[in-house]
Design a protein that fits this description.
Helices cover 65% and strands 0% of the residues. It is built from five helices and no strands. The longest helix is centred in the first third of the chain and has 24 residues. The mean pLDDT is 90.
């Protein structure tokens, strides 16, 4: 496990916050499939951004006081990679969202 992912998990220690990210990742997957199916290629740049309303809501509602989304700390790409890894870990049952 790399250092960025450890930091990412520390920022997402609340299961409800992780749940919001998980829902956002599913919304991203569904949005991506919709873009492909409809051929709305101009929406492709929006795909990585779909998760953020869910993720930011999770931090506001369930995060620790003063908690900020990880992309403000480690950069967009690293945060996105960590978010995808967390999604996979949740799917595999390694992390709880309840």
């Amino acid at each position: 496990m790399n250092d960025n992912y450890k930091i990412y998990l520390d920022n997402h220690s609340n299961p409800k916050c992780r749940l919001m990210h998980f829902i956002g990742q599913w919304a991203t997957i569904l949005f991506t499939l919709g873009v492909i199916y409809s051929g709305s290629w101009l929406l492709i740049p929006a795909i990585p951004l779909v998760v953020y309303p869910f993720a930011i809501s999770g931090h506001i509602l369930f995060g620790a006081k003063g908690d900020r989304p990880s992309f403000t700390k480690m950069g967009f790409i690293e945060a996105k990679k960590a978010d995808c890894k967390m999604f996979v870990d949740i799917m595999r049952g390694r992390l709880s969202i309840w």
